[in-house]
């Protein structure tokens, strides 16, 4: 075999090998990194199950990581950086701090990796898609629900104080819910009913602290008539405190359908409701959209409102609630 024929054969073999490797790479499952808040938390467990189901349905390798609590920002930043370094095909993330993580999310997006945010957005325009509750509207609905429920227990000219606790001060999600809640309250609540906005407790995602804050409010305010909490951990804290103290006289509205909230909602002695988000859908569609983007697709709508609904004793067993909560 002369040198020209040998060279041509080597070139042909190289081309075949390159095409084979490319085809294998193209057909191999995409790697989707999912980074959430508060791993093990009931709310996030539902979102996680949605993400896992999407990975199974669409044949993607989905890895899920989460921080132990919603204020461990540094750990979440490390997870994000590791996903970028590992060249994940796409990243689905619920940021713990909207401001502090904005640059890191922007850098990840600028590296060429599709970024899909769920539940909470970083304060940047550098992302591919976001699946979120409209948090201002959710706060408004929470205020309307609390006012409606209070009116079944408290007269409009009776002094009523409403206590609030939150998980963190850095979450844009929490801020928007509080903004929507307070704006609606100021416009619609009776004048004798006031929010204890000068004494909002911050539990930093610590359930033990959240429970204690609930008991503290019950002890400190003789005119206390209601609780409001805009996130899951704070809601669990308030609900647990009410059950432990057997305070059926306190009306409460919180967020998310935790086991603790389901228990207290099903007890008709308590006057409570929770704002049910569609976090299963956030996890499922978050992975589905991330995979489409990783395969070169595009999104028709960058910001997707996944919706919210009020759940109480009257509708807890409805098909609509079961579907939203991802309950079979």
Verbal overview:
With 328 residues, the protein is an alpha/beta fold. It has two domains: 29-132 and 279-297, Rossmann fold; 135-277, Response regulator (Rossmann fold, 3-Layer(aba) Sandwich), CATH 3.40.50.2300. The chain has helices at residues 3-27, 42-58, 73-85, 102-110, 135-150, 172-188, 207-220, 232-245, 259-265, 279-294, 319-325, and strands spanning 31-36, 61-66, 90-93, 115-118, 129-132, 160-166, 193-195, 201-202, 224-228, 251-255, 271-277, 303-305, 308-311. Strands 6, 7, 8, 9, 10, 11 and 13 form a seven-stranded mixed beta sheet that branches. The chain has a six-stranded parallel beta sheet with strand order 2-1-3-4-5-12, with helices on both faces. Helix 2 packs parallel to helix 10, helix 5 (135-150) crosses helix 6 and helix 7 crosses helix 8 (232-245). The longest helix has 25 residues, at 3-27.
Helix and strand element order = HEHEHEHEEHEHEEHEHEHEHEEH
Question: How much helix is in the residues?
Answer: 40-55%
Number of domains: 2
- Under CATH, the topology of the largest domain is which? Rossmann fold
Largest sheet: 7 strands, mixed
Tell me the number of strands: 13
Average pLDDT across residues? 91
Could you name the CATH homologous superfamily of the largest domain? Answer: Response regulator
Tell me, what is the CATH class of the largest domain?
A: Alpha Beta
């Amino acid at each position: 075999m002369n040198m020209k024929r040998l060279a041509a054969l080597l070139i042909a073999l190289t081309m075949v090998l390159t095409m084979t490797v490319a085809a294998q790479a193209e057909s191999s499952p995409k790697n989707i990194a999912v980074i959430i808040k508060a791993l093990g938390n009931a709310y996030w467990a539902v979102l996680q199950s949605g993400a896992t189901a999407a990975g199974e349905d669409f044949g993607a390798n989905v890895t899920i990581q989460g921080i132990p609590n919603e204020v461990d920002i540094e750990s979440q930043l490390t997870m994000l950086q590791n996903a970028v370094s590992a060249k994940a095909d796409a990243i689905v993330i619920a940021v713990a701090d909207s401001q502090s993580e904005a640059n890191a999310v922007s850098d990840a997006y600028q590296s060429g990796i599709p970024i899909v945010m769920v539940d909470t957005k970083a304060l940047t325009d550098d992302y591919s898609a976001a699946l979120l509750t409209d948090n201002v509207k959710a706060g408004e609905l929470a205020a309307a629900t609390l006012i409606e429920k209070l009116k079944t227990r408290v007269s409009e000219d009776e002094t009523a104080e409403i206590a609030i606790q939150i998980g963190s001060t850095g979450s844009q999600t929490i801020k928007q819910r509080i903004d929507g809640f307070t704006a609606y309250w100021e416009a619609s609540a009776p004048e004798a009913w006031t929010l204890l906005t000068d004494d909002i407790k911050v539990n930093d995602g610590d359930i033990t602290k959240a429970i204690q804050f609930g008991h503290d409010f019950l002890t400190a305010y003789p005119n206390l008539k209601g609780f409001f909490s805009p996130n899951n951990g704070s809601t669990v804290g308030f609900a647990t405190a009410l059950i432990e103290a057997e305070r059926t006289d306190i009306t409460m509205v919180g967020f998310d359908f935790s086991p603790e909230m389901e228990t207290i909602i099903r007890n008709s002695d308590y006057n409570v409701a929770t704002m049910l988000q569609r976090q299963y859908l956030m996890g499922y569609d978050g992975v589905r959209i991330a995979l489409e983007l990783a395969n070169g697709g595009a999104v028709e709508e960058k910001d997707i409102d996944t919706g919210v609904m009020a759940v109480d004793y009257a509708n807890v067993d409805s098909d609509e609630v079961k579907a939203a909560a991802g309950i079979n």
